[in-house]
Amino acid sequence: MSASPLEKIRNIGITAHIDAGKTTTTERILYYTGVSHKIGEVHEGNTTTDYMDQERERGITITSAAVTCEWKDHRINIIDTPGHIDFNIEVNRSLRVLDGAVFIIEGVAGVQPQSETNWRLADRYNVPRIIFINKLDRTGADFFRAFDTLKEKLDIVALPLQLPIGIEDGFVGVVDLVEMKAIVWEGGELGAKYHDEPIPADLAEQAKEHRQNLLDTALSVDDAAMEEYFEHGDVEVATLKRCIKAGTIAGAFRPVLCGTAFKNKGVQPLLDAVLDYLPSPTDVPGIAIAAEEGEDESEAVHDRRRIKADPAAPFAGLAFKIINDKYGTLTFVRVYAGTLKSGDTVQNTTKDHRERIGRMFQMHADKRAEIKEVSAGDIAAFVGLKDTATGDTLASADDPVVLERMAFPVPVIDISVEPKTKESVEKMSLGLQKLAGEDPSLRLRTDQETGQTILSGMGELHLEIIIDRLRREYNVDANIGAPQVAYRETIGKPHTEIYTHKKQSGGSGQYAEVKIAFEPQERNAGIVFENKVVGGSVPKEYIPAVEKGIRVQADTGVLAGFPTVDFKYTLLDGKYHDVDSSALAFEIAAKACFRDGMKKASPMILEPIMDVEVTTPQDHVGDVVGDLNRRRGMIQNQESSGSTVMVRAHVPLKEMFGYISDLRSMTKGRASFTMQFHHYDPVPRNIADEIMTKSA
Amino acid sequence: MQAPRLRWMRGRRAEEAGETRTLEWVGCDDAGEAIARVVRVLGPLWTGWRSYRAVALDEDGRVIELRPGEPPDGAGWLACVGGQVVGRAALPLQAVRTAEAALSPE
Ligand SMILES: Nc1nc2c(ncn2[C@@H]2O[C@H](COP(=O)(O)OP(=O)(O)OP(=O)(O)O)[C@@H](O)[C@H]2O)c(=O)[nH]1
Ligand SMILES: [Mg+2]
Questions:
Q1: Which atom of ligand 1 is nearest to the CA of A50?
Q2: CA–CA separation, A230 vs B3, rounded Å?
Q3: What value of ipTM does the predicted structure carry?
Q4: End-to-end alpha-carbon separation of chain A, Å?
Q5: The sheet that has B42-47: what strands, in order across it?
Q6: A252 touches chain B (CB under 8 A)
Q7: Among A34, A47, A441, A505, which one has the highest count of C-beta atoms within 10 angstroms of its own C-beta?
Q8: Residue (of A277, A22, A41) closest to A135 by Cα position
Q9: Given a cut of 90, is residue B16 above it in pLDDT?
Q10: Distance of alpha carbon A151 from its chain centroid, rounded?
Q11: Residue pair A13/A94 in contact by the 8 Å Cβ criterion
Q12: pLDDT score recorded for residue A39
């Protein structure tokens, strides 16, 4: 594929709740743009973007896959993302590096809880979006009802650019409100053939009304367009498109299109809309550089310097995804500025070391085409990077910027893993490290007391897939423990502790003394360290040993062995001995100081509280709410639409194990629920006792 | 689509986030006389302990009428004919139609 000028590139994502039809839509796009010569189907396990075994077997998307295609002389890089909440990190990191997104909802159910989560994620990164209402061929589909849920649930100005012609079995095409014409698909040819027609008479009045609404809304973003309208009572198609694009990028309104991916209708106009309304890399303000240490991340973002898409500027790119396969490690990088050739050297400015770029590829799901250079605005995969993780910045030494960081979701479920045979201990640890390197929502730690390996992830499905990949990709069969809540520990009040480590046994002794103040921090502050030692009472070279001791020991909290978070420790003073002191002695002293000190600083256990949304028929609301209360839930709100009620509550994750089967039997299978992590809260006394007894 | 009856022109403008946006459209009759306006409601504006929305009533914004309270749900534009507010709308083109309808009721 030839290099395209920047204005002719679109980097877009396809995102939605689970099963909305993202992969199905992507598959059509690849067919119509000529990348593939036959359409794969999710249920047949032969789509291009669901290429992992687990994806094909389960019919769901697990990892985001990048594909590239050409449409009307433009290049579109598309990332198909998963809908299941357990794989939210994939949506997160994709939205972070994309310039625009197609947001799919279903024509039958409209906006669903998971759609809302992903919508807010796109809000966070300010991603311009167009909405596609899919599955209009299904029984019970209703464009206008689905459309209404956009306004109700997402609280947005949704702007239809199309109206459906017919519905369910009779859905044949769309009215194009921009050009005021009908687009009708001919049967056969897998939807590749379609033609324009005059708008059917029975839709003329409705089309006129929506066209006026389109003008009212779109032109309001552009004074010159308003004047053109005052002059002529209408505007040129080009003017209208310009206004729709401006409003879409600014987020003033969200254009809505419709169709059925599965029955091959509506996808080509969606591609046209991607070119017409979603931004090219030059249409967006550019990525902001990261906040300085201590600076308020949210407030200052407008004032921070932005990196503009300029191929001639010094290189700057963000690593957003890492895959290990049989050829080695592939690092996906979104290039924001500059041009890079294979063999060049860049700076990893996040970690402060140099990286040499080996080969470069443009990716088509699991296939690849080698390229020799990549420039601003594009996405490529690099081979041969030594130590670059998801979220790291690669930049030219001429302008070593650090780009705005990525936010990672918090893993809430723990399992212990153990290889089935002693021989595979090494292999398992290597495999898990590789998998954790690919997936920032997966954490790996070793319990200091039991020596067990603990994996923390987003949910049971997430961890199940990881164990399965360990088996298939790294040939390690592992035993796993029952899923556990990922508790955390923290402290409730400040305390200062002095600890002296002294050992005199024949030869050289060990000596170190530290005086450390421990203080509580607000939630999500992590672990903060300050060094206030004056006059070298703890020599400089031993300070890292103190830090290491605390960090290692913090992984195993003093109450029940869970990682300790959200506290600050300040090294105030200490003592050393010329001969007997060593880094090791200071590390041991710091560990012991932590163990003794934390116990006196009102330690407590924190538990993850989930945001739970239950959709239930009216006649079971009482049971559902009563049950949530018994699970220590706090009802947040309750909304009814028609005969169903949506109950939203904050419930400790511990109480949610096995909820799905209880909910089913309580409502005869008619209710459903979703949940996601919301925040950490201290556990009540009796439950803390229970957890501590269990861990003892 | 029917063309507007009046000749609508840009009125006052304001700098907003580095961009100049029109806050007011003025509708003139055939003689060039300004007989209607649609005006964007600005605010909120705090004086003392109350919050107001401000509507300019003259060309240069010297005469300002303060209206307490929020405009009803998204109705950020006022349609005015001869100094009288004849309606509100969420979008300027809707306010233009409201003003023109008030001028020549059919
Ligand atoms: N009737 C109908 N079915 C559709 C349509 N689009 C997708 N489907 C079906 O819906 C199911 C889910 O489609 P996918 O494309 O896998 O959905 P997805 O959004 O990629 O799902 P995840 O990646 O798992 O979140 C499949 O069985 C599709 O065949 C449509 O327009 N009409
Ligand atoms: Mg999918």
A1: 23
A2: 7
A3: 0.76
A4: 62
A5: B42-47, B50-56, B64-68
A6: no
A7: A47
A8: A22
A9: no
A10: 24
A11: yes
A12: 75
